[in-house]
Amino acid sequence: MSEFKAFSLLTSIIERLNLKGYIQPTPIQKACIPLLINGNDLLGIAQTGTGKTAAFSLPIINNFGQNKTEINAKSTRSLILTPTRELASQIMQNIDDYANGLGLKTQVVYGGVGRQGQVDAIALGLDILVATPGRLLDLIETGDINFKSLEVFVLDEADTMLDMGFFNDVQNIIAKLPKRRQTLLFSATMPAEIEVLAQAILTDPKKVQITAETVTADLVNQRVYHLEKSDKVPLLLNILQTPDYKKVLIFCKTKYGADIIANALEKVSIPAASLHSGKTQAVREKALQNFKDSTLRVLVATDVAARGIDVDNISLVINYNLPEDPRNYIHRIGRTARAGKSGMAMSFAVENDVRQLTTIENSIGQAIPVVIEQPFHKEFSKAALQVKKPVKKQGKKPVKQKGKNTNNRARKK
After folding, report:
1. Superkingdom of the source (predicted)?
2. What is the mean pLDDT of the segment spanning 23-41?
3. Phi/psi class of residue 21: alpha, beta or left (left: φ > 0; alpha: ψ in -120 to 50)?
4. What pLDDT is attached to residue 237?
């Protein structure tokens, strides 16, 4: 029996959840749904993959399904603001699935595609609008949307908005909203700017926090490979010889680098594509859908493009380049530990990365095991290793990797 029935959701919503195989609520859903049904403002601290979308969308859908009302032209009863086009599209797909059969009017708006279809949909009045900041501000400025009917505002991935330079846009949008509303703010982390924003827009909020560190420490099997920069592609090809890694997400620093890696994999008949802001929206959506469908085995992405992407059953995450911000490390590897499942995360580190690696280890409170027996292992110099600082708890011993290319290993030694 579905445990979602305890929330007194509409029968049609329960049926849709059953069809998707959702029987037991995740911790954030269990904590948030009753509070939101009760009308509370909410501050949620949780990373992508914890079930956050259902946590905030199910109460909205349930409320609007039970309480149909006339909506002003060019307005919406709820606004969900999110940083990227991929995440906006993903949220909309889930909402349309949960709300199937309830007759709610929904629309997603973002840049990179024609605006007229979006304008026409908004003109009729909406129950739920999912939007990215840039296109929404454009629609506000041209008078194609107002917020006379707004009841609920959701600000999703608030820290990503800050990282991507959308903070002023978000504040400008909030200034256009009615003061009387239910407000939900979700963020994976709480930098000072987000704390100030939360205090400004939330009224007597309830706080729910699902820590990313728990996912990192308990569910993801982490490894780091010490190597020369020139050996990164050969090591990647060596790792991908393992057939168990059926769906692989690779993070790299630049758009150019993502294209190079994807092309290198395609040349050896490994289905791969790159995902970054330099691609058209149609190309990005196709690559993401093919990865979800397992038509592509490997997706190579930059942090900006991949932040917030929720794809099931990723078997391996590879940090081709270490992130500058340790928070991004947690976001990245969390892509492979979903719904209580375990996952594998590998990081490539050159000698100049030692300081970044140490910062990450201190952030997660553990030393990441080094794979010694691999074809391209490099012993770092004592001078480089002197920058290492003690982590909060004892790390694991170096790991021996079972694999091929033993001749290469002998050559490197």
Report:
1. Bacteria
2. 95
3. left
4. 96
132 and 168 together in one domain: yes
In angstroms, what CA-CA distances link 65 with 90, 144, 151? 21, 25, 14
Give the range with max mean pLDDT: 239-243, 277-281, 399-403: 239-243
- pTM for this prediction: 0.73
Number of domains in the chain: 2
Contact predicate 260/92, CB 8 Å: no
Q: How many whole angstroms separate alpha carbon 347 and alpha carbon 388? A: 17
Taking every pair of C-alpha atoms in the chain, what is the biggest distance, in angstroms?
A: 74
Q: Which of 170, 187, 210 is the last residue of a domain?
A: 210
Contacts within 8 Å (CB) and 24+ apart, 112-121: 112/85, 112/280, 112/281, 113/281, 113/282, 115/139, 119/144
CA distances from 212 to 186, 215, 248, 254 (A): 13, 5, 21, 25
Q: What CA–CA distance (Å, rounded) separates 350 from 328?
A: 19
Residue 306 token pair: 């991949």
Confidence of residue 410 (pLDDT cuts 50, 70, 90): very low
